[in-house]
Design goal:
With 321 residues, the protein is of the alpha/beta class. The protein has two domains: 162 residues, Rossmann fold (3-Layer(aba) Sandwich); 153 residues, Rossmann fold. Helix content is 40%, strand content 22%. Strands 7-6-8-9-10-12-13-14 form an eight-stranded mixed β-sheet, with helices on both faces. Strands 2-1-3-4-5-11 form a six-stranded parallel β-sheet, sandwiched between helices. Helix 3 crosses helix 12, helix 4 packs across helix 5 and helix 8 runs parallel beside helix 10. The longest helix is centred in the middle third of the chain and has 17 residues. The radius of gyration is 20 Å and the shape is globular. The relative contact order is 0.15.
């Protein structure tokens, strides 16, 4: 069975005649960051001349759907499966026992049970983490506005979101800020959750929580009506909504890195030989500042932050440096 599903890796890179492999990609939900990972993977493999066919699936935020997708990939005998975000990666690892699984945009793959150590992959599993610099993000927000109470909305059923909530809470403690939290279980609850805490906080921090990010329009709507700034860890989605500042990874580049890792496995490298990879280069990080939002909120973004940002929104226009 395995020999069939892993069909001659060397032939994947053969120029003539090209033999295709089937790569199943499952993402927990569609939003700009995760969509960018998906595109980055395909672009990297195309650039590496990997002749691949793709089964692209979206779980629409539902764990049951993620499990069904994993079963679909198993019945299709995909050559390799990719889980974008923690819940879909978990479903793939739980179902595909003898098929390589590559995770991407997973905050803590060890706590998520995907691998036992960051230093090496599982027998069939490895991938790319998007652990985010939470404390530095909050410190950046403090350069724009003094904050006594920071609100945080996260998904109680999403492992990466729970891990990050703990990191946010600890960062607030170290910075002398009161941590005000509220949880959701699905995206339709995000607006109500935001409304529940908005009058008790001076600012909101949004992590790389896929359920919350997919409902960023609702968060931003409530925040702006109450003149509360948002600091986001996802610059991709912040391009489309009134977020004061966003500092985080370039998820398209994360997709390219994931594609490189997939290519290594297709060439014969075993997942257990590949440690979890992190986005550590300065060029991997995006900083977005929204001067229009700052103006509406009566805030001034320091000139050095504006100068250091590679994405600036002003007069309704997004400029990328």
């Amino acid at each position: 069975m395995l020999a069939v599903s892993l069909v001659s890796f060397s032939s994947v890179f053969a120029a003539d005649p090209p033999k295709k492999v089937l790569i199943g990609i499952s993402k927990i939900v569609s939003h700009p960051a995760l969509d960018a990972v998906e595109k980055g993977i395909q672009d990297e493999l195309a650039a590496s001349r990997v002749h691949a066919e793709y089964d692209l699936q979206n779980a629409n935020g539902d764990i049951g759907t993620a499990a069904s997708i994993a079963n679909k990939f198993q019945s299709e005998k995909v050559t390799l499966a990719v889980g974008i975000a923690t819940p879909t990666a978990q479903s793939l690892v739980n179902t595909l026992k003898e098929t390589p699984v590559v995770f991407s945009a997973v905050t803590d793959p060890v706590k998520a049970g995907l691998v036992k150590s960051l230093k090496g992959g599982g027998k069939w599993v490895t991938g790319v983490s998007d652990m985010t610099p939470v404390k530095q993000q909050i410190e950046l927000l403090l350069k724009i506005k003094k904050i006594k109470r920071l609100g945080h909305i996260y998904t109680s059923s999403e492992e990466n979101a729970v891990v990050l909530a703990g990191v946010v809470k600890q960062a607030c403690k170290e910075l002398g800020i009161e941590f005000v939290e509220t949880t959701v279980s699905k995206s339709s609850e995000v607006k109500q959750a935001t409304q529940a805490i908005i009058r008790r906080v001076d600012a909101l921090y949004i992590s790389t929580d896929n359920t919350v990010v997919s409902a960023m329009s609702a968060v931003a709507d409530v925040a702006m009506k109450n003149k509360v700034p948002i600091m986001s860890a996802d610059p991709s989605s912040a391009e489309n909504y009134p977020v004061l500042a966003a500092w985080g990874f370039d998820y398209y580049k994360m997709g390219r890195v994931t594609g490189v890792l997939i290519g290594e496995i297709l060439k014969g490298k075993k997942p257990e030989q590949i440690p979890t990879r992190f986005m550590t280069k300065t060029s991997d990080i995006d900083l977005l500042v929204n001067l229009d939002v700052a103006k509406k909120l009566g805030l001034t973004i320091p000139k050095d932050l504006v100068k250091g940002a590679n994405k600036v929104v002003e007069n309704g226009k997004l400029t990328k440096k």
